[in-house]
Amino acid sequence: MSVFGLSGEAAIPLVLGNLLNLYAAIGGILTLELTVKEVFIIAVMLSFSHNLLIETGVALKSGVKLWVVLSVRIGLALVAAFIINLVWPGGSEMVQYGLITANETAPVGMAAIFLAGLQKAVLGTLQLAMIVIPLMIGIQILKDLKWLNVFTGWMAPVTRGLGMNENTALVLTAGLIFGLAYGAGVLLQAVKEDGVSKKDATLAFIFLVACHAVVEDTLIFVPLGIPVFPLFIIRLCTAIALTLIVSRIWNRMELAAKRKGISYETKY
Questions:
Q1: Backbone phi, psi, residue 94, to 5°
Q2: pLDDT per residue as tens digits for the range 141-170
Q3: Which parts of the chain span the membrane according to its record (predicted)?
Q4: pTM, whole model, 2 decimals?
Q5: Which residues of the chain have pLDDT under 50?
Q6: CB under 8 Å to 180, separation ≥6 — which residues?
Q7: d(CA 132, CA 219)
């Protein structure tokens, strides 16, 4: 774990996040004494790789290969953690978890330990509720007012720039707003009904792996006392760069295959 700038106990929220979800991971983080740098690295890793069991299952149904799902998600998490640890010398101070105040002295006795843990749990839950409940209401309003179609129109030029057809615009919009599982569900429907190609489905999934649920998955890290704007920028830039790279490589491979086919037909 040291190569990623993390202590051994950081494995607890990472396991919880990957097997369950971000909320379980945040609950685990709130019980630990970590530095700002450690919490930020954990947040970046979990942004790329979390809820693997459910979200991977949905992605597989949409036609994306298992090795693509796991290698991209886990690979991004590990590479990002390594790079951040390498280039960021700061963040050595202990993190302040929002409303949770640090104890100057360690609690003594079972009752004191229990009360300190209960206080952290209650305050942590309260902070998450203050963010998540209004956020969920806002997302539901977006669904009810059918603004998703409006945002989809805005995303059409973006999909073209990323090397995808415009019929993936709805997929990217749904994933960016509502999350990877919801976006993968829309992707599954788009593959069946709108004729989204295997290439576009894979590119859309790669983009959403790096950057999905941008509002929720960014704001829920606010109670952890870390800078969330850099977290958002890292996810967005990674999604754009990775999708463009894979798209260019895929296009060159298709072009090379076509040239071979033409030369084969000409020769024989």
A1: -70, 140
A2: 776 777 777 888 888 899 999 999 988 888
A3: 12-32, 38-54, 66-88, 122-142, 169-191, 203-226, 232-250
A4: 0.82
A5: 263-268
A6: 51, 55, 58, 59, 208, 209, 212, 213
A7: 8
